[in-house]
Amino acid sequence: MYDLLIAPFVEFGFMQRALAGSLLLSLAACPVGVFLMLRRMSLTGDAMAHAILPGAAAGFLLYGLQIVPMTIGGLIAGVVVAIGAGAVSRFTLQKEDASMAAFYLISLALGVMIVSLRGSSVDLMHVLFGTVLALDDAALTLIAGISVVTLASLAIFWRALIAECLDPLFLRSVSRLGTPVHFLFLGLVVLNLVGGFQALGTLLSVGLMMLPAAAARFWTGRVITMCTLAVAIGIVSCLSGLLLSYHAALPSGPSIILSAGAVYLLSTLFGTRGAFLARIRHPHRHRTA
Amino acid sequence: MTEAAITFRDLTLGYNSHPAVHHLNGTVRRGSLTAVVGQNGSGKSTLMKGIVGVLKPMAGACTVEPGARVAYLPQQSELDRSFPARVVDLVSMGLWPKRGLLGRTTKADREAVGKALLSVGMGGFEGRSIDTLSGGQLQRALFARVLVQDADIILLDEPFNAIDAKTVGDLIGVIKRWHGDSLTVMVVVHDLDLVRTHFPETLLMARSPIAWGATGEALKPENLLHARRFDEAWHEDAPWCEPAGHDHDHGDHDHKHHAHA
């Protein structure tokens, strides 16, 4: 048991770093994912993940495969797309799904173009799928910083975020915070995707954000519980994904996301609000009132 | 002594340069209870949005008495009923003007929420999730939220749509209590009998104000007929509305010219 579950993390520095990085990521990205899901913006996370590619690619083009320039580039590209799409949806008739799709597609094409200008396909794979087993100190510090900023922002703007999801028109009638909070939230999404893309790559980083959140929805009807549960699911997925990858010599990013995917599928079936349990519990009985 | 709670000065509100409320002048007295009446598309909801400030005026101004808190219950709420929230969470949103983003909710606040739910006949519903409420229950809960807001000016946009008679009676009771507490209340209503029975003052709208005053006077047959004849549609080639006394010698022809430019 010890050999199976604990030894890999004790014996190997790269496993400790991978664990620390992915746990920090879960802590921040999973609650953000819960709000994305509750705002029916689950696919927005996916779009944003594609959108940060050209920035990361530009950093890669200029400085090679280095964490800091690629991160800053990704952050800039993500913020440009988030603000662009958000502004189009707030100030024109077009809804956010359409404007987001337009902006991220432009961004994605630009990113692929930039990567192919210089890199080989191995590099492209690196950017797309990340390397959780090769997190260096700079990357860990960055992820830790992102987690702190995210959790602090969520704590401070919690009430506004809830109000903006539950009844945006009401919030607008009592406060001017609605629009700033929306953009702040998109900023947090970008930040967490950028943090995740070191470890999981641009395409998979959204998986750690959305899958635990989507799974948690099947277990509870309270937002705070949902966030806590999503974090717990995220942590479990990271642990089991890393162990799976270690013992079976599988790529680590996909292992983590597939673990989260397995939790999601089990939750859809067996969650207290899932497909089966909710039906099975009292199939032929009901209360008098 | 009567003072203005809301003042309209030549207020024009609308969308895409078409007016929905056209040149409204006047004041809403503090402590008055006014029904806003008119056909669909006559600008009632737009006026409400203008007062709250969700919609900016195209011309003129709408000023709310300084320091007054406004509570607004929209006709088409953007409430997301699938959001995992309980009735108590929804009603507690009404604490926002008092507590804001970070203010801690006190025991008194929670008691106020409970009392508000009781007074709309929703005692014991605190823990119910909002997606299990009926239309009438939700409307009662939203009234409770307005109660909690503890506002000086209360705007209700068609609060009685698809609500049964008993609930309408209860909600009218709440409105009367506000009126008794000298709050300023404006309610968009379609049921003219209801207006005649319960609302001392009426604003009759048909894009422009048709009549505004004591309900009996405002709802005279000729006024109602006038309001009913109003042309709801927007016309793309409608002439631009110029302020009176300005450029008058150009006449009608020039107006049309503008519209095609």
Low-confidence stretches of chain B: 245-261
Major sheet attributes of chain A: none
> So, the CATH homologous superfamily of the largest domain in chain B?
P-loop containing nucleotide triphosphate hydrolases
User: Any idea what the shape of chain B is?
Assistant: globular
Count of helical regions of chain A:
14
Tell me the CATH topology of the largest domain in chain B: Rossmann fold
Which structural category do the helix and sheet elements of chain B fall into? alpha/beta
Global outline of chain A: globular
User: Count of DSSP helices of chain B?
Assistant: 10
Biggest pleated-sheet summary of chain B: 6 strands, mixed
Strand order of the largest sheet of chain B: 5-6-7-3-8-9
Instruction: Tell me which CATH architecture of the largest domain in chain B applies here.
Output: 3-Layer(aba) Sandwich
Examine the secondary-structure arrangement and name the CATH architecture of chain A.
Answer: Orthogonal Bundle
- Portion of residues within helices of chain B: 25-40%
Poorly predicted runs of chain A: none
What does this 3D model show about the protein?
The complex is a heterodimer of chains A (289) and B (261). Chain A contains 14 helices and no strands. Chain A has a single domain, classed as ABC transporter involved in vitamin B12 uptake, BtuC (Orthogonal Bundle). Chain A has helices spanning 2-5, 7-11, 13-38, 42-51, 53-63, 67-91, 96-118, 121-129, 137-166, 168-174, 178-216, 223-248, 252-270, 277-280. Chain A has 289 residues and is mainly alpha-helical. Mean pLDDT of chain B is 85; it is low at 245-261. Chain B is built from 10 helices and 9 strands. Chain B has helices spanning 44-52, 87-92, 96-99, 107-119, 135-149, 165-180, 192-198, 215-218, 221-228, 251-260; strands at 4-15, 18-29, 33-38, 59-64, 70-73, 153-157, 184-188, 201-206, 208-214. The longest helix of chain B is centred in the middle third of the chain and has 16 residues, at 165-180. Chain B has a 6-stranded mixed sheet with strand order 5-6-7-3-8-9, with helices on both faces. Chain B has 261 residues and is of the alpha/beta class. Classes of the chains: A mainly alpha (289), B alpha/beta (261). Chains A and B meet through helix 9 and helix 10 of A and strand 5 of B.
